[in-house]
Write a structure and sequence with these properties.
With 354 residues, the protein is an alpha/beta fold. The protein has one domain: Rossmann fold (3-Layer(aba) Sandwich). It contains 13 helices and 16 strands. Strand 14 and strand 15 form a beta hairpin.
Length: 354
């Protein structure tokens, strides 16, 4: 099936659909780029965010470049529920053809202070999806779980729970009747809620020192659109149990701050590492290299369980771990990368360099 028709007449469920990635994913789906789905359901526990999404999509006076359907009234639906709540989740899954599982507790310090809450959402939530599909006559064709670079060689609760979430979803393929489960693993999304770029912009705009944890700290950086690209690639091209990883730029956090400062450099204050925080992030570990292949511009980690990998030896795409510590881009290049994250950041960078 052509990519432009992949979602034609499909019923889609997006758990955590009011989050940064969830909203970007819904927006892309509604453009019709991948075909016209019969239904897109946003499932989350945040009624306020659902209300504002509804206003954004359902109360437009006319179709826009982003939303081609007539006010989206025929397609977009909202359901309040928690992935921890098995009966509510089962009800939301009925009739779904494709599930994007983006619901998560993702703030690293919060997960350190409330570790069992992270377990309930990030692990039990994924298991509830698997259980519902295994134990009920559902017609779900594919589940794509959204993971994080912090799941690779994890040192914090968020990463640990996401690592287990990956394994829960991958293992689900062993006894799955008609459903394929895949994962996507990516790094920091530029300008997403709670990320460093909005914090730096606010600090610079208000004349305050820029706060960085450690001078050595590095991160992978990608735009929301690139994150959505990766999710859709995993959906359309991924085989059961595979994990898709985008090839993206990495940078020192101090250079991110300098790129946003522009001509008027401001004071950088180093605050020290936060609970559970890594200095460098890794998206593919050394142990995963032997089963990582290159496909369509992405790294694809083949399933850890040999019975899911099939026959034949994989041609290794990496001979060392894929770490944000390596190949950091310059401040000048960073300005280009950050400018791709949205009009507001682009204008801010342009103004700061005048």
């Amino acid at each position: 099936m052509a990519k432009t028709k992949y979602l034609d007449n499909k019923s889609i469920l997006v758990t955590g659909g009011t989050g940064s990635l969830g909203q970007a994913l819904v927006r892309r789906i509604l453009t019709g780029e991948y075909g016209k789905p019969s239904k897109v359901t946003v499932y989350s526990r945040d009624e306020a965010k659902q209300h504002f999404m509804r206003l954004d999509y359902l109360q437009n006076a006319a179709a826009t470049d982003e939303v081609i359907y007539h006010n989206s009234r025929d397609v977009l639906d909202f359901t309040i529920g928690d992935v921890r709540d098995y009966p509510a989740l089962l009800a939301a899954l009925r009739g779904a053809d494709i599930v994007f599982h983006a619901a998560a507790l993702k703030q690293v310090p919060s997960c350190e202070y409330f570790p069992f809450e992270a377990v309930l959402t990030n692990i039990h939530g994924a298991q509830n999806i698997v259980r519902a599909i295994r134990e009920n006559p559902l017609d779900v064709e594919k589940v794509v779980g959204i993971s994080t670079d912090k799941a690779c060689k994890p040192i914090n609760v968020m990463g640990m729970t996401k690592a287990i979430q990956e394994r829960v979803l991958i293992e689900a393929n062993r006894q799955s009747r008609n459903t394929a489960f895949n994962c996507v693993r990516y790094g920091n999304v530029i300008a997403s809620r709670g990320s460093i770029v909005p914090l730096f912009v606010d600090q610079i705009r208000n004349g305050r020192p820029v706060t960085v944890t450690l001078a050595e700290m590095t991160r992978f950086l990608l735009t929301l659109e690139k994150a959505v690209d990766t999710v859709m690639e995993a959906l359309m091209e991924g085989k059961p149990g595979e994990t898709y990883v985008p090839r993206v730029e990495s940078a020192k956090i101090t250079d991110v701050a300098k790129a946003l400062m522009g001509a008027e450099q401001r004071e950088i204050v180093y605050t020290g590492i936060r609970p559970g925080e890594k200095i460098h992030e890794i998206m593919v570990s050394e142990e995963e290299c032997f089963r990582t292949v290159a496909r369509n511009g992405y790294y694809v980690i083949l399933p850890v369980l040999p019975e899911l990998r099939g026959e034949g030896e994989a041609e290794m795409a990496l001979d060392a771990e894929y770490s944000s510590q390596d190949d950091n881009i310059s401040v000048e290049k960073l300005r280009e990368v950050l400018s791709e994250a949205g009009e507001e950041i682009r204008r801010f960078i342009d103004d700061s360099n005048q």
